[in-house]
Amino acid sequence: MQITFWGVRGSYPVPGAATVRYGGQTSCVEARSASGETVIVDAGTGLRALGNKLLRAATAPGHYHILLSHVHWDHIQGLPFFSPVYVAGTRISIYGLLTAADELHQVIGGITRHEFFPMALESVPAQFEFHEVNPGIEFEVGSFRVMPIALNHPFGSVGYRLDCDGTAWAYISDTAPFDQVLHKQHFLKGPEPLSQVDRSALSVMREALIQKLAGVDTVVYDTHFTPDEYERFPHYGHSTPDQALEVCVAAKVRRLVLYHHAPSHSDEQMDRIAAEYLAKGALVGIEVLTSFEGMTLPIGAATDAGAKPVDRPPGGAGAGGREEAGKGPS
């Protein structure tokens, strides 16, 4: 199994001169099994380039599976621009954490209303199927076993553990840590006092996350904020690399990948973050990489033996540990 990053930013896309090396598209990761089966995790603006690649490789209309962490804009904005949507005979299964599959259909359909987009969801040639997921209840997508994991984010978010080919990786975005704030079904204007019930809920959520990550090779984690940024915005629903590393140490995972980079972080700042946390991870026995668009990683220690390190483009710190660079998104 391998994963490829097609969008690594959070909040909104920021392509431009300051983000050339790490990329400016929002959340989208492709998981591919040894047999060629594909599962897509999140449908941010990175989904457009992935869709173009999948369509070029297709010999017939396909069936695509998209796991959504949640339906905030930066995680679904690529759906109307996913090329296979416009091919008759295509099936697209979307999985998300909502109270009902019909409600998920309304959310996705809403972004293609005539006020926002020239073609409604109901008018595209592809057939959409919507499936509700529930934390702790595993399901299968082809040869992938998928375990949803509850996360701490405004209005709810879910991570995923994906097992396939005898190994596993996990996608943990978006989430706040599990100490200062418990996110519920409203947006917090600032930190709110925690009741004992809230503290217990946070503890249970953290322990469940660590339990589900046990035995995982690679964790892709929301590390949107630097520590000083988090101090100003602890109620926004995102984590820091230190908080992600703490969870990964507790779960005894092999590798952490920093992800969901803040749109304000330039390539130069990302270089500094990558170097700092590569070193911090080494101190606790965890390989820490920093995601960038086009990065492809083999999952599982056995497959890593064949991966050859490739330096970053000129100007990079080379600290992100690009193990096996895939061709960049088209």
Top keywords for this entry?
disordered C terminus; alpha/beta; single chain; eight-stranded mixed beta sheet; Metallo-beta-lactamase, Chain A; 7 helices; seven-stranded mixed beta sheet; 330 residues
Would you mind describing this structure in some detail?
With 330 residues, this protein is an alpha/beta fold. It has a single domain, classed as Ribonuclease Z/Hydroxyacylglutathione hydrolase-like (Metallo-beta-lactamase, Chain A). It is built from seven helices and 15 strands. The chain has helices at 47-57, 101-110, 196-213, 227-232, 241-251, 267-283, 301-304, and strands spanning 2-7, 28-32, 38-41, 63-67, 91-96, 127-132, 139-141, 144-151, 157-164, 167-172, 218-222, 255-259, 287-290, 295-298, 324-325. The strands form two sheets. The chain has an eight-stranded mixed sheet with strand order 6-5-4-3-2-1-14-15. A seven-stranded mixed sheet has the order 7-8-9-10-11-12-13. Helix 1 links the parallel strand 3 and strand 4. Helix 3 (196-213) crosses helix 5. The longest helix is centred in the middle third of the chain and has 18 residues, at 196-213.
